[in-house]
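user: can you give me the structure for this one chain? C-alpha cells are fine.
assistant: on it. calling the predictor now.
[tool input]
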Amino acid sequence: DAKLIVVGEGDYLPHLKLLSERLGLHDVVFAGRVSEAEKVRLMSGAWVIVSASIVEGWALTVTEAAACGTPCVAYDVPGLRDSVKDGETGLLAESGNVKDLAEKILTVLEDAELREKLSRNALEYAKQFSWDKTAEEFLKVLEGINK
C-alpha cells in the first residue's frame, strides 16, 4: 500500500521508468526535479527516504530529510554511513544487496514504533548541523593555515 516517489534526475531515470512500466507498477511517481519547497513537503510527508547510492560523499539529502523528521534507509557505504546512524536515525543495508535494502525499507514501513523512534532521532541528529556552524569550523581551519 506504499507509494514510491522518485525525485530528481540522473542516468538511471529512463531505466527506472521503463522497469516501472514493464512491471505494471501504478504506485510509482516520477517527480523529476522539484523546488526546495516541494522537496521539503515531500520529505516531511514521507515515512522513509531511500538512498540506493553505492558511492556517496556527505549525503545532504539524508540530512535534509532528517531535519524533516524522516528516517533514511541506505546502503552501508562511506558517506551514507556517516549521514545515517544505523538503528538510530535510519537503517543501513549491505552495500549493493537489493534484497537487504528492500527488507529494511519494509521494516521501517511496517514497524510504527521503530519508525517513530528513527524519526525522533533523525530530527535530533540533524539539529547539530547548520551552515553557521560549518562556516565557523571552516574559518578555524583557514586561520590554522595562516599560522
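assistant: here you go. The chain is about 50% helix and 15% strand. The CA atoms of residues 10 and 32 lie 9 Å apart.
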